[in-house]
Amino acid sequence: MPRVFSGIQPTGELHLGNLLGAVRNWVEDQHRSDSFYCVVDLHALTVPSEPGSLGRQTMDLAAALLACGLDPEACTLFVQSHVPEHSSLGWLMQCTASFGELRRMTQFKDKSQGQESVSAGLFTYPTLQAADILLYDTDQVPVGEDQRQHIELTRDLAERFNARFGETFVVPSATIPRDGARVMDLQQPDRKMSKSSSTDAGIVFLDDDPAVIVRKFKRAVTDSLGEVHHDPEGQPGVSNLLSILAAATGRAAEDVAGDYRQYGPLKADTGEAVVELLRPIQERLRDLRGDPGTVEAALRTGAGKASSVAAGVLDRAERNIGLLPRT
Ligand code: AMP
Ligand code: TRP
Question: What is the second-level CATH architecture of the domain 3-180+292-321?
Answer without folding.
Answer: 3-Layer(aba) Sandwich (3.40)
